[in-house]
Design goal:
The complex is a heterodimer of chains A (398) and B (319).
Chain A: E1 2-7, H1 11-27, E2 32-37, H2 46-55, E3 62-66, H3 68-76, H4 84-90, H5 92-95, H6 98-104, E4 113-125, H7 126-131, H8 140-152, E5 156-158, H9 166-189, H10 198-212, H11 229-234, E6 237-243, H12 246-252, E7 260-263, E8 274-283, H13 290-300, H14 303-308, H15 331-340, E9 343-344, H16 347-350, H17 353-368, H18 373-390
Parallel strand pairs in A: 1-2, 1-3, 5-6, 8-9
Antiparallel strand pairs in A: 3-8, 4-6, 4-7, 4-8
Helix pairs in contact in A: 9-10, 10-17, 10-18, 17-18
Chain B: H1 3-62, E1 65-66, E2 75-76, H2 80-85, H3 89-120, H4 127-139, H5 142-152, H6 159-166, H7 183-195, H8 197-208, H9 212-220, H10 225-236, H11 238-253, H12 257-262, H13 274-284, H14 288-318
Antiparallel strand pairs in B: 1-2
Helix pairs in contact in B: 1-14, 3-7, 3-8, 3-11, 3-13, 4-8, 8-11, 11-14, 13-14
Classes of the chains: A alpha/beta (398), B mainly alpha (319).
Chain lengths: 398, 319
Amino acid sequence: MHLRFMTWLDASGKALMDQAIKEFEQQHPNIQITQETVAGTGAATYPDVLKTGMAGGNPPDMFFMWGGSLAAPFIDANQVIRMEQYYKRYGWDKVLIPHAVQAIKRKGALYGVPIHYQGMGFWYRKDIFQKHGLQPPKTYQELEQICQKLKEHNIAALSMGGKYGWNVMRLLDYFIEMEAGPEKHDKLDRLEASWDDTAVVNAYKLLNKWASNGWIPEGFMAVTPDDARIPWFQGKAAMVFEGGWIIPVIKQQGQDITKYGYIVPPTGHKPERISAFPEQIMIAKASKHPDEAAEFINWFIQPSIQEKYYDISGSTATANVKLDPKKYPLVNEWNQVVATHEAYPPTDQAFYKELMDSYFRVQDAIIDGRMTPEQGAKEMQKAAEEWKARNPGKCGMC
Amino acid sequence: MDLLEVSKGVGERLAEREVSRASYMSRFLRKRVSVTPYLFLLPALVIYLTFLVYPAIYSLYLSLTEWDGLSPQKKFVGLQNYISLWGDPVFRLALRNNVIWTVVTLLVPTIGGLALAVALNQPLRGRNLFRAVFYAPGVLPLVAVASIWGWIYNPNFGFINEMLRHIGLGSLAHGWLADYDTALPATLVTAIWQGIGLPMMFYLAGLQVIPQEQYEAAAIDGANAWQRFWHITLPWLSQTHVIVITLAVISSFRVFDLIYAMTYGGPGQTTQVLATWMYFNTFQYYHAGYGSAIAWVIAGISLLVTIPYIRLMARSQQE
């Protein structure tokens, strides 16, 4: 039988996944899998393509999906199957990292299997830091000093791509976590606290400060997230805000991986949380072969397979994955950081897209200076109230 | 009445009946013949009904519902989606942007295309090369055009900013597509670059049918170049103007690709147009009913322009 598998992998990731699929097919001659990929825009268009297939009654049998509000519409529209029976049959609870499984639950139920658990932070050029006598910051104040010093040497501290909004969102999310603290940040994400709050105003002030001080390259709002890495690789910017997936990208660019390091964004709070999110595989309700799809997922999430094909996404949600430190410098360290830090979700996994676009609209206006931080906070709260009124009972982080 | 008269009368009636039968057969055969063109039209008609009329009617129905685009249930809400449109600030902004887009892409490529056509209708050296150069952007896929211009406008290493810095105008260099004031004009420049070739070709074709004798006679009568253009060229191109202007209006209300690929409707919602706002609502916000209502507003505006165009073309063909 034949299964269709939709992913968002780019060319190199797709090639590796195809290799993994081939290996699976050799071991399971009765199952054939075709990978279909929608690469390049992240969560901006992938769900649209998937949704079109579903609305047309022809969805892929299984597909990649994020968590939270990005997965919620597919679950709420009853388009995916519940997976508890497969967790029980295959004992996946013992295979997977528990907090990754927890992170994909919706209203206590399991509709997917986590394959990645991605944590994000600053990734920096050690050579640039060394050249200017800089050390990774331990506090936010130190981070600002680094930004200022780099600017004096005509180097942008952080390269970001504002097109689609979500890349810059990571920085704003960090500021909100720092200004609001973990408890209030979670309430803001669940719309249980008002966005018209001093913490949000302060976060907007910081965002505007970074943009207007030139700590981010000029014109970054029109740049795609992928293109934003170019100044970093060229040495014109010192940092990017990315997840562990950046490690294979650094290698693919032919860069010397030893010149790169990571910085856990200092928040000054306890617990010091990082932005992290799960990625999962879901099985479509319309699939005629859910058992075979589950068989593939079971094969794919085993530690030995995850170790072998780790470069597909540069992350795993499987426990006990041991990677060769020589082949994967940084990876084990970073995975340890992700595993030991509590997490807050990126806002685009907490908010539905419609509300998220209000978040992006305010974010853009703050950077451009068209809205003061105070106006931005009021505008965001207004958008949240209007969205709640239009969508009673909807919740991205339930 | 004698037997002869009776037989004559029967004979006449039989003859009349025969004539009537022959006439019926002839009409019948004519009718049969007249069905044939419809049989030839049938395959195209079936395709048209299946892939255009049915989806259009279905989307009209969807525009009267509240539907997330995924669930089996659709809630009928009557005209509520159409009423909500007017309270939606982004819809109003998108409509305004479409009007700006229409005015600019109507005037600039049309006038520019006419000027180029008149210039390239002269016996210049290498005019075929120039014609090809100006027409070439029109055959490129819009996404490719958007990608090319995205790089030209790139704030860090794009051609425009590099050139400005090179000639000492570095202070003017900025993020063209990221700036609220320049994002829409910047995409319009791309649209003009891409769209100028088609009207040029239409006008070049129109110029070929103008009799040269008229220009010669006007020149003998002392008409200058401007007078010849105004009193001969422009009137002769009246049919071409209708085609060019109508196509420009229709395509401007359908604009999607350039905006989507160059700015994604941003910064903020500054460059949203009706088609992108329809897309965002239908596919990203899970408001398929509302998105369908926007689609029908676009269709309505396009039909308002297209119907007079089709009638004009039909009348012109009859003449």
